[in-house]
Amino acid sequence: MSGARPVILIDGRSGAGKTEMAVELVAALNSQFVSLDDVYPGWDGLEAASGMVRTDILLANRFHCWDWYADAPGDWCDLDPGLPLVVEGSGALSRANRQLATLGVWVELDEPARKARALARDGESYAPHWDAWAAQEQVFFDRERPDLLADLIIAGGQL
User: Fold this and answer.
1) C-beta separation of 83 from 31 below 8 A
2) pLDDT at 121 (0 to 100)
3) Contact 92, 105 (CB under 8 A)
């Protein structure tokens, strides 16, 4: 990628520490931030959101925010193509998306620790979805191998 704004893609499985790391980077870089939690079209939407990283966020500089309460698409959110961008979430670091990014980061943490962190963070609203979401993450991981696409691998979300 040349002559474009800096774009950092942060990927990892649920509860690994991606968001914490992204928030620190956004503050340090004074950049825009897109959490895929705002993009996933529902609990079965990891694959769709991964595609939207490329087509909507990176190429069109906008994305449809997902309204979790209405379980429907919400408003369009516009991005400034001249400002640095950090995109965080499971599914962010695919082969297609990596081609348009400056830096790819994989955040690694063991499953028991991730699950404990995710359920502590999101409470019982996430618990019934954990297994199905983990299965989507596994399918994505097996196909894309985001850990191998990453320029940096961070243990436990610690910078």
Assistant:
1) yes
2) 86
3) no
End-to-end CA distance of the chain: 24
Contact residues for 127 (Cβ-Cβ < 8 A; gap 6+): 119
Q: What is the pLDDT of residue 1?
A: 44
Q: 7's torsion region: left (phi>0), alpha (psi -120 to 50) or beta?
A: beta
Return the DSSP state at 54: I
User: CA 4, CA 11: separation in Å to the nearest integer?
Assistant: 21
* Superfamily holding 7-155: P-loop containing nucleotide triphosphate hydrolases (3.40.50.300)
Q: What is the pLDDT of residues 11-36, one digit of tens each?
A: 999 989 899 899 999 999 989 999 99
Domain ranges of the chain: 7-155
What pTM, to 2 d.p., does this model score?
0.92
- HSE, CB side, 13 Å, CA atoms: give it for residue 117: 16
Q: Evaluate whether 114 touches 65 at the Cβ level (below 8 Å).
A: no
Provide the residue type at 25 as one letter: L
Angle in degrees, CA 117, 9, 61, rounded to 5: 120
